[in-house]
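From the pipeline queue, job 12 of 40. The input is one protein chain; the requested action is below.

Action: predict structure.
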Amino acid sequence: MAAFSVTNTTSPSSCLLQPHPSSSSSYPLVSLPYNRKFGVSGMLGLPFNWRRRRTSMRAVNQNAEEATLETDSPIRKTDSYQDGRTTTSTVWDPSIEAWSQFARRVSGEWDGFGADFSNEGKAIELPESVVPETYREWEVKVFDWQTQCPTLAEPDERLLQYKSIQLLPTVGCEADAATQYSVDERKVGEGISGLTAFAYQSSGSYVAVWQKKDNILELECCMFNPQDCESRVRVIQFIHVLNNTELVLQGIRVFREQWYGPFRNGDQLGGCAIRDSAFASTAPMIASDVAGIWKGSTAVASFSTSNTGIFQELFDEKVQDSVRDGDSNILLPKQLWCSLKQTKEGETLSEVGWLLDHGQAITSSCLFSKTAKPQEISIALETRALEYA
């Protein structure tokens, strides 16, 4: 693995920062505190760039005359040759800017909690072998892992690496005694083995489709809170592919994470001050809060043809309405939901949603073809229709 040198000391999206006091809330049902880490909290983050960016091209001809052209479409061409002459064009490529913004916002140390759920949304307990004897004596059920996710995206080239680390549960503020239980390391880029689709947005949000063994797909959706650039969720759907056609949801994994500091490859544990708490055993969201008509701007990436590649930027392409039936979704804690449904055309549509404040939600969708191949990925910022608010 290549070595990286990171000197950045700012938050992921230029948010104004204020010191955040440490807190030591207790683990659910008992007065024994869980591991915490110190961190910083951000003011309101930068909003999503939902409007298509306008690009500027400066072309220089043989006579050194300059012209500036405005266009609504991304320009990805840097050099051109006509009639045997060489014409040099300096082109601003918006995809480079979008990736650079994405890299800044996604990179860093992300700490929080993670939990597994059944395909019906029921929380799954941690293995008894990893739970401290003290919890068993108190007859406390433990559902959450304390987690780290050190993440680094190269701003100048489309490479992303991150590790999902599960830490063994501890009793009290035992930061020095924290031990890794498992490490799942991922690398993202063109030609990466096992990656079948990756779509990203300058906000830091992304969707990745991973092909695993035994005909299992892992559909990973990372969504940033548009009002808090240091808060995000990652939802992974484990999908079994039957006969290369039918997709069946097997389980769900949820991470709730906060930005802790610049990338340090997970080497630093900050003690008892994580700005979140265990969540798996808390109440799921209410079905009626999902149901209704939702309106929003949707950023889309298409994978329907073989020449589009597996690495795409999400662009703002359309405004659409969505009608949801709350009872047909899998309801999860912390205002999260997901679904995996077959369409009338025989395709399969996955959706993950996160209900925000003031009747807003951020949703992510992935459409699979009849042969279980990713066709389209989208991320939308939606507002609930007034009649359902």
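Job complete. Residues 20-46+100-388 form a domain with the Lipocalin fold (CATH 2.40.128.20).
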